[in-house]
């Protein structure tokens, strides 16, 4: 599994764009999963970077979490509001895995409460999904040119520049 800091070292530009856009939207991202009929589903989600991992946690019983329970693959896209992508945008690809660590869940809920005031400290999260990033890409405007940054595990970021 790839920790967040490992991902940031391997893909520093994509990680920086993801973190910048994630923060700018109040952590809002769009999550792509696969429905039971094989069609794609797009759902809003507020992923969290906590204890050096990226987490996809939310209201239990939602269709997006049922999708991930069937097929752990996903795409996570930073919420784009600027059609010119002046601040860039990023996509992370990967799989989720359920973490059955009640102490970690309690620390996560306390961190959420400390940051936002939203109190889930009495909740038990099932599922409680951590992310393994298996690929990523980002776009950014640089000197008036669109640059597409691509990363795969074991490789360095590579840039495709569109004129």
From TrEMBL:
<feature type="domain" description="Pyridoxamine 5'-phosphate oxidase N-terminal">
    <location>
        <begin position="27"/>
        <end position="112"/>
    </location>
</feature>
<dbReference type="GO" id="GO:0070967">
    <property type="term" value="F:coenzyme F420 binding"/>
</dbReference>
<dbReference type="GO" id="GO:0016627">
    <property type="term" value="F:oxidoreductase activity, acting on the CH-CH group of donors"/>
</dbReference>
<dbReference type="Pfam" id="PF01243">
    <property type="entry name" value="PNPOx_N"/>
</dbReference>
<dbReference type="InterPro" id="IPR011576">
    <property type="entry name" value="Pyridox_Oxase_N"/>
</dbReference>
<keyword id="KW-0560">Oxidoreductase</keyword>
<dbReference type="InterPro" id="IPR052019">
    <property type="entry name" value="F420H2_bilvrd_red/Heme_oxyg"/>
</dbReference>
<dbReference type="GO" id="GO:0005829">
    <property type="term" value="C:cytosol"/>
</dbReference>
<protein>
    <submittedName>
        <fullName>Pyridoxamine 5'-phosphate oxidase family protein</fullName>
    </submittedName>
</protein>
<dbReference type="InterPro" id="IPR012349">
    <property type="entry name" value="Split_barrel_FMN-bd"/>
</dbReference>
């Amino acid at each position: 599994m790839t920790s967040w800091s490992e991902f940031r070292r391997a893909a520093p530009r994509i990680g920086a764009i993801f973190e910048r856009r994630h923060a700018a939207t109040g952590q809002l991202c769009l999550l792509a999963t696969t429905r039971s009929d094989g069609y794609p589903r797009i759902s809003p989600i507020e992923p969290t970077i906590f204890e050096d991992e990226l987490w996809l946690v939310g209201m239990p019983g939602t269709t997006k979490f049922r999708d991930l329970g069937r097929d752990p693959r996903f795409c996570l896209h930073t919420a784009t509001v600027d059609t010119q992508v002046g601040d860039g945008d990023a996509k992370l690809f990967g799989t989720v895995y359920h973490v059955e660590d009640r102490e970690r869940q309690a620390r996560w809920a306390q961190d959420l409460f400390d940051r936002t005031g939203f109190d889930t400290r009495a909740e038990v999260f099932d599922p409680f999904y951590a992310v393994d990033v298996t690929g990523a890409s980002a776009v950014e405007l640089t000197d008036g040119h669109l640059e597409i940054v691509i990363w795969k595990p074991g490789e360095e970021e590579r840039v495709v520049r569109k004129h």
